[in-house]
Design goal:
Rossmann fold, 12 helices, binds S-adenosylmethionine, alpha/beta, eight-stranded mixed sheet, 275 residues, single chain
Length: 275
C-alpha cells in the first residue's frame, strides 16, 4: 500500500470489521444493493468511460461500473486487503476482464491526474480524517467535466427503521461503547449533514453539487432469528442474556416479511462535477 494518512481506518478495515464484511460479502451486498440503481442512474457511466470506485470493498459496484463502462474500465480502490481479496476473487469468478483493484488510502493516493471520467462510491467516502483533502485528491483524478456520485447515510429520521433497530442493538449489546465503537459511529455519520457535504465539495473545487434524499430497503436476514444472529456476529464475544435476546427479536419482528427482514433507511445521493 502507498502512503496511509488514515491509520485507524486501515487498522479497522484490515482487522475484525474488514474480516466481518469479507466473511459476509453476499449479505452486505444484498443489503446495500437497494442503492445501486440511484447511484448508477446519477453516475451515468457511458461505454468507454474510465471509472474509479472509492472504498470499493468487495467490489460489487466496481463490477457494475465495469459492465456499464465496457470497452472502458473500472478501478476499485480500498484500504482493506481482505475486502480486496474478495473483490479480486469475485471479479475472476464472474469473468469481468475490465475491472482492477488497488489497495490504497484514497485520501492521498497519487491517482493518475485526470485519469477518470467518473468517480463513484457506495458508502466508501465517510471515513476520511480530512474530507476536503480527500475530495480534492479525487477531483484531481477526474478529467475536467468528470462526475462524482456517491451515497452516504442520512441522519436518523422518519424513514430510519434501520437506524432505530441498529441503535437498539448497539444499546443492548454494547452498553458502554469504547472509543473504537464511538469513532466508527462518528465516521459513519461524518457526511450526514448536507450543508457540510456542500461546503466540503465546494472547498474541494467541485461545482453543481446536489444532495438528494433516497429511501432504500435493506434485507437483514431470511427471518428474525437469522437477522439477529447476523447482527450479533458484529459483536463477537458478547453473549447476551435470554431477556435481551428476546428484546432484539421483538424489535425486528415488525419488519419480518415473506421475503426476509426488511428495514427502510435514508441515504443521501450526492452528485457533483469537476470543472
Ligand atoms: C461501508 S464499506 C462500503 C464498501 C463498498 N463500497 C460496498 O458498497 O460494499 C466502506 C469501505 O470504505 C473503505 N475505506 C475506508 N477508509 C478508506 C480510505 N481512506 N481509502 C480507501 N478506502 C477506504 C473500507 O475499507 C470499506 O471497504
Amino acid at each position: 500500500m502507498t502512503l496511509v494518512v488514515n491509520p485507524r481506518q486501515a487498522e479497522v478495515w484490515n482487522g475484525p470489521v474488514g474480516a466481518h464484511w469479507a466473511a459476509h460479502q453476499a449479505r452486505y451486498d444484498a443489503m446495500l444493493a437497494g442503492v445501486n440503481d440511484a447511484l448508477f442512474d446519477a453516475a451515468a457511466v457511458a461505454p468507454g468511460d474510465r471509472v474509479l470506485d472509492v472504498g470499493c470493498g468487495a467490489g460489487a459496484t466496481t463490477r457494475i461500473a465495469a459492465g456499464l463502462a465496457a470497452p472502458g474500465h473500472a478501478v476499485g480502490v480500498d484500504i482493506s486487503a481482505p475486502l480486496l481479496e474478495r473483490a479480486r476473487a469475485s471479479t475472476a469468478a464472474e469473468g469481468v476482464a475490465n475491472a482492477a483493484y488497488e489497495c490504497a488510502d484514497a485520501q492521498v493516493h497519487p491517482f493518475p491526474a485526470q485519469g477518470y471520467d467518473v468517480v463513484v462510491s457506495r458508502g466508501g467516502v465517510m471515513f476520511f480524517a480530512d474530507h476536503t483533502a480527500a475530495f480534492r485528491n479525487l477531483a484531481r483524478a477526474l478529467r475536467p467535466g468528470g462526475r462524482l456520485a456517491f451515497v452516504c447515510p442520512q441522519p436518523p429520521g422518519e424513514h430510519s427503521e434501520e437506524a432505530r433497530a441498529l441503535g437498539l442493538f448497539a444499546r443492548l449489546v454494547d452498553e458502554e461503547p469504547g472509543p473504537e465503537a464511538l469513532a466508527a459511529r462518528s465516521a459513519m455519520a461524518s457526511l450526514s449533514d448536507p450543508e457540510r457535504v456542500r461546503a466540503i465539495l465546494a472547498e474541494a473545487g467541485y461545482r453543481e453539487v446536489a444532495v438528494t434524499p433516497v429511501t432504500v430497503e435493506a434485507v437483514w436476514g431470511r427471518d428474525v432469528r437469522d437477522a439477529v444472529d447476523f447482527l450479533l456476529s458484529r459483536y463477537p464475544g458478547r453473549p447476551l442474556p435470554a431477556g435481551r435476546l428476546a428484546e432484539l427479536e421483538a424489535a425486528l419482528l415488525p419488519h419480518a416479511t415473506d421475503t426476509g427482514v426488511r428495514m427502510r433507511a435514508g441515504v443521501w445521493l450526492v452528485t457533483a462535477v469537476r470543472p
